[in-house]
Design a protein that fits this description.
The protein is 44% helix and 4% strand. With 139 residues, it is mainly α.
């Protein structure tokens, strides 16, 4: 969201796939706006936009599953697929759920085949050890 505003990429669509039912939209907006305000001051007010609105972010909570901290079958499948194909490790709580959403978006044509996608891997490696039995069952 911050890059979208700094670069004035109004055509970018940002979708967050949240691991909890109540995304901290207010916190995200406040932190981003503080950063935008700071960067705008540092650049002598050269930013075209220094305010993030709620409409700048889309939230999809349909990959939440049965609760925060509870992996889903789709997240486990996404983790295994990405590990096998790309040697990238995702965790079942955050990035696994987000990747399962990205895969479903791609398979259902919610993403235009000609578009570029940026997936932000936000970490979560310690969760791999917590769920190692589920993750290693097919390897």
């Amino acid at each position: 969201a911050l890059a979208k505003k700094i670069l004035n990429f109004t055509h970018w669509k940002i979708t967050g796939i949240g691991p909890r039912l109540q995304p901290r939209m207010r916190n995200i907006r406040e932190i981003t706006n503080k950063a935008l305000n700071y960067l705008n001051k540092r650049s002598n007010n050269k930013l075209k936009s220094n305010f993030l609105d709620y409409k700048d972010l889309n939230w999809d909570l349909s990959f939440y599953g049965q609760g925060y901290g509870i992996q889903t079958e789709k997240s486990i499948n996404a983790i295994k697929l990405v590990a096998k194909k790309e040697a990238i490790f995702l965790d079942p709580i955050y990035t696994g759920k987000a990747m399962s959403g990205l895969i479903e978006y791609a398979n259902s044509n919610k993403i235009d085949r000609d578009s570029s996608v940026i997936f932000i891997h936000s970490g979560g490696t310690p969760n791999l050890f917590t769920y190692s039995n589920e993750l290693l069952s097919d390897f």
